[in-house]
Design goal:
- It contains 18 helices and 13 strands.
- The protein is an alpha/beta fold.
- The strands form 2 sheets. A 7-stranded parallel sheet has the order 3-2-1-4-5-6-7, with helices on both faces.
- It is globular.
Length: about 425
Amino acid sequence: MGDILFLAHRVPYPPDRGDKIRGFNILKYLSTKKRVHLIAFADDPADLKQKGGLTKYTGNRSIVWRAKSQLVAGFQALVQHRPVSLTAFDNDALRQAVENILERHRIDTIYVFSSQMAQYLPPRPRQRVIMDFVDMDSAKFAAYAKSSKGPMGWMLGREARLLLAHEKAIAARADANLFVSEAEAELFRQRTGADRVHVIENGIDTDYFDPSAHFKRVDVMGSTIVFTGQMDYRPNIEGVTWFVETILPHIRLAHPDARFIIVGRNPTDAVKALGKHPGVAVIGEVPDVRGWLAQAAVVVAPLKLARGIQNKVLEGMAMARPVVASEAAATGIDHGGTILVGATVGEMAEHVTRLLSNRRKAAELGEAARQRVIDRYSWEARLSPLDEVLGQPLRPAKEERVSRITDVPKKPRRAA
């Protein structure tokens, strides 16, 4: 029995944002089955310092710094007729690290976390290939393109088309294609015609995200409405902007003391500017979001565009907080009515206002939400279907597995 090679577009540690949370928990789960070797990119200096947290779950670890600018990646994409999503992650050092691991160790499974990393698969893989798309990136860029105009709209539309072709080619080569929700999996089947598509949902650590756990409490005043997320991520930026500019004013008519707290690392200038609005505070990065979630009268997820399962919603539920989410943010979560979902500005504002007015109902909803995630979303239960995927034999039809992904260059190039 061989080892597993885990390829990740970002170091899956510390597990403090959506992709890293999923990546870390899957890697941790896989490490209970076989020895796992990790090769990943880092784009935050802090990740280089904390990679030791993965020692107990991995054999060899190769972490490559990703410094290529978006400008360089965009130029390369235009010249090479490739998606920017791929050229941004094209790196000779990482390619060499993959070759070294495959030569030195008996690898029988390659777990590819995110489609950007599929360009590092061997041309003729003898190993089992598990492709974890998480969600369908081409659909995300297609949605961006529809809401953009001019050169940016053209570029986003181009990205969506090329990524879709890339996703189809990967799916044809993989032994299993994974998605975070049935909605994402079905969309992928419809747009690509792919088979061997499986759903591996995200989970939540309900021992860590527990209102009775030991963590530093936060003192806040007023009726607090909390949003958590990576604040240089476009859907999060658009979501909090929408909430501040259109939803919060309605809430503050009924509750003048209502305060909207934005918690998350790397807030952009646009996000920081929201702090000038009445009742809005931009906190930025915090060492532990649990303190802010615990003090929230309401947790909100007002995302207009969301793919897969939103960890921020599961975290709010696990902390026994009443959650109000947009339809996009709630999609894919089997919440059983334990969160409130709004389709319009009016519905979102009304849900939050009623919860602020009836703290008893809010507490009951929060407790029901926590019980729901305990029953439905433990990581062990969510990841157990991986056992079946890992046990699948390699497909005998080798000619299908060697179909070349046409947007991957034949020869390595010097990294920019």
